[in-house]
């Protein structure tokens, strides 16, 4: 069968590549054509356009590149029409993909599946009507999304979470603390991990405060920063001056977390990864206009939390220090609790176990592939 996939950023490339692998195991004759990245290309098929030509984040970049975005969208529509796939699979990237879905469903009458739901539950609930109209089935990776969509009488499936798969299949799962520090020439001291984000703007906003917050812990702990892919080491070096010695390790995030006593983590998938590796954490996220952001969170967003850990759990499991709550003193106070108050620490770890049970076992891409494949053959 012929499969057309659209993924517009790095995370989508990863998840779509795993889905392609699962589809190929079910369908040996699978033919893939896609907007995506290197990981998808490694699974075979035809890469039509790389996500690097499409990934514009934020209002200003989108406005400045509006013509390019529209050209990409028009090209994608024409390419799908020419390829005549049996199914179109959209992966996150909602602004672009919803327009693709509308065209494919209304003009080409081709089945459309959405893998990894956009976060419409946070602040764009009105978009559910469009998804119902133009997407045959939504394949969700967060348990609470099922209840959200079903209240709109929308047929959805929870297939599991790809992060569970990533943790289960990680390198060095049995590595000991001694093996880790020997491999990286580190000290024989407990580790505090800092995960300051994946983009330069996030890192520049969050890392200085994180480093300031851990100053008082440097005698008894070593500080390790998990370097983000695609960020050059020199960028991190700019923030080291005036702080205790810091180790910066790249492509080692899971190995760092697996050995850490606690972590300071920006909001995002990293908070879920940290919880799945059973590391007590503080969620930290600095915003440009803290009071305004806090007001917007309380009055505009339709969600009580920003971290995946709390959203999945349905209650506060990890402390979220963002907007007006983001201060060095608050971060330091919470870190002390996690490191030195055993009951507080253990309560968080117990809650992690409940969250992990909600997420279920590995196999998200396999389940998603099976739903798509069997629906096409029914």
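Q: What amino acid sequence fits the structure above?
A:
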């Amino acid at each position: 069968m012929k499969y057309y996939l659209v993924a517009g950023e790095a995370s989508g490339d990863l998840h779509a590549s795993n889905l392609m692998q699962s589809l190929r195991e079910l369908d040996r004759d699978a033919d893939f054509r896609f907007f995506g990245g290197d990981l998808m290309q490694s699974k075979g098929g035809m890469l039509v356009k790389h996500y690097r030509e499409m990934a514009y984040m934020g209002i200003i970049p989108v406005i400045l590149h509006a013509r390019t975005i529209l050209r990409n969208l028009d090209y994608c529509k024409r390419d799908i029409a020419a390829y005549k796939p049996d199914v179109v699979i959209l992966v996150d990237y909602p602004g672009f993909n919803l327009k693709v879905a509308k065209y494919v469903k209304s003009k080409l009458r081709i089945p459309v599946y959405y893998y990894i739901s956009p976060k419409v539950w946070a602040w764009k609930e009105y978009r559910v009507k469009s998804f119902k109209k133009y997407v045959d089935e939504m394949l969700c990776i967060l348990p609470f999304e099922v209840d959200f969509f079903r209240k709109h009488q929308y047929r959805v499936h929870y297939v599991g979470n790809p992060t569970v798969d990533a943790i289960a299949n990680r390198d060095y799962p049995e590595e000991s603390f001694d093996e880790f520090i020997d491999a990286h020439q580190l000290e024989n001291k407990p580790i505090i991990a800092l995960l300051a984000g994946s983009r330069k703007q996030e890192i520049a906003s969050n890392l200085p405060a994180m480093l300031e917050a851990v100053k008082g812990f440097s005698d008894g702990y070593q500080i390790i920063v998990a370097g983000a892919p695609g960020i050059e080491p020199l960028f991190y070096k700019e923030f080291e001056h005036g702080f205790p010695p810091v180790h910066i390790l790249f492509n080692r995030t899971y190995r760092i977390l697996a050995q850490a006593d606690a972590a300071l983590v920006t909001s995002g998938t990293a908070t879920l990864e940290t919880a799945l590796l059973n590391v007590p954490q503080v969620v930290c996220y600095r915003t440009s206009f803290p009071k305004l952001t806090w007001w917007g969170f309380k009055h505009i967003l339709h969600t009580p939390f920003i971290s995946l850990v709390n959203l999945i759990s349905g209650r506060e499991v990890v402390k979220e220090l963002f907007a007006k709550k983001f201060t060095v003193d608050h971060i330091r106070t919470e870190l002390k609790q996690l490191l030195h108050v055993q009951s507080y620490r253990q309560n968080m770890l117990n809650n992690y176990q409940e969250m992990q049970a909600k997420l279920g076992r590995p196999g998200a891409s396999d389940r998603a592939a099976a739903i798509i494949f069997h629906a096409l053959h029914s």
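Q: And what stands out in the fold?
A: The chain has 19 helices and 13 strands.
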